[in-house]
Amino acid sequence: MTSQHGQKQRSWRPEPDEYADAKAALNARGRSMSAYLRACLRWLNSDPDAALAALSPVWPEPRLTGRPRRTAHPASSTDSVDAE
């Protein structure tokens, strides 16, 4: 069965607290997250230099990609023997 929607769904994974706070701020002003994100895309397309400059102070650090590093197992009491 084909999708009933004309636009392809996009996904992203915001930090839960950041998303909740932003959604609350938008809701308090009678705005939706979807409309806000679409407005940001339109602003970026129409004036990329101004949009990116305005966001520069809050631009997030890149996320690490790939699998998490394997951590060393903590030493157990049987791993170290007292020499006394």
Short description:
With 84 residues, the protein is mostly helical. 42% of the residues lie in helices and 0% in strands. The relative contact order is 0.05.
What does it look like?
The structure is a single chain. This protein has 84 residues and is mostly helical. It has a domain at 16-57. Helices cover 42% and strands 0% of the residues. The chain has 3 helices and no strands. The chain is extended and about 55 Å long. The N and C termini lie far apart (73 Å). The mean pLDDT is 85.
Secondary-structure element pattern, one letter each:
HHH
Radius of gyration: 23 Å
Average pLDDT for all residues: 85
Taken from the alpha-carbon principal axes, the silhouette is extended
Q: Into which percentage range does the β-strand content fall?
A: under 5%
Number of strands: 0
- Give the CA-CA distance, first to last residue: 73 Å
- The computed structural class is mainly alpha
Main sheet characteristics: none
Low-confidence stretches: none
Indicate the percent of residues in helices: 40-55%
Number of helices: 3
Question: Could you outline the blueprint of secondary structure elements for this entry?
Answer:
Elements: H1 16-28, H2 33-46, H3 48-55
Helix pairs in contact: 2-3
Keywords:
84 residues; mainly alpha; 3 helices; extended
